[in-house]
Task: structure prediction
Amino acid sequence: MNRWIEKNPYPRFTSPVRFKLSQAQQEDLQSFIRARNFLQFDHVTGWLIWSSTYAHTEHNYDRVPKKGILRIAASGDSFTFCDGRQIKDCWVELLRHQNKVESLNFGVSRYGMDQAYLRYKEYGRSFKPNVVLIAFQPENTLRHVNVFRPFYTLQDSPPFTKPRFILKAGRLTLLENPFKRVEDYNALLTKESETLRILGQHDFYYRLFAWHDNRLFPPSLKFFEHLYMTVRAKALKRTIVTPKRFIKSSEAFQITTQILDHFYDDVIKDGGRPIVVFLPRKDDILSFVKYKESTYQPFMDHLKENGKDFIDTMNGFEQELTLGFMQDYFQGGHYTSKGNRIVARTVLERLADRHLLPN
Result:
């Protein structure tokens, strides 16, 4: 990790909250190191969900699709993996029900699009998909300036590290995962403070925490520490996205558009047909209802200006908007079975419009 010890590109501000791994995070980490977790270490992307085929599917597919078969691969995060749903109810799996269509799900929970892109390059492209759905859940944008997951999501566990991209002279440049072996995580258990400082060198959210002994509040006022931290975190994230839309001048936005562009172009080089698929969260839909425009409209504008194809599944949800909409289509922050069916239906309709589905 020595190469990570360099001048911090982000300013440090005084914060009353010192970061420390919780007991639960330490225990989960020990379990992960001992390979007693359904998640497995991956030096390229940070982590994988264990699968003998590298894809979240119940089917064993040949590396190359048979003649006359349309093979679709989907890459993304938990909205692609379909957290909380059985495989048969996942929107990616529902695409397979179309005649002569195979669908491979390369989604992994807690990924950013940066990791999804690296996973495609490392594993997905070897399956020779005809169509690659770059499944973009817009909140991923905030993950693209993050290296240590709990700096962004405090109680995230196990506490993983991840690679990220930076811009050097306007060019997308990869900073590889700081941990090369699963055993490297032991440093978080034995030299926590020193290791956290190293991981924070290129983490946008590192500045949220105090890295010295000075406190603005005494230990007896924990409530005010929590309140201060909540307000501070919200203010920092507002430099990337407002309730109305993502901010085009932010580092996170600029990195994300380049990730999408590189991913898209690589699929074309591999002989596939790329399509960016927007997967709105509950907050995205509430914002759309209120402001009559998607928070992620700047991303769609960028793709349109650069001649890149995309599908906005907001269109499918818009047709279903009713008073009971949210509880019908979202549970625990992710799509219900009904929500997954809307996404699958919308994607299939748009694929048919493009004459991509087999007869």
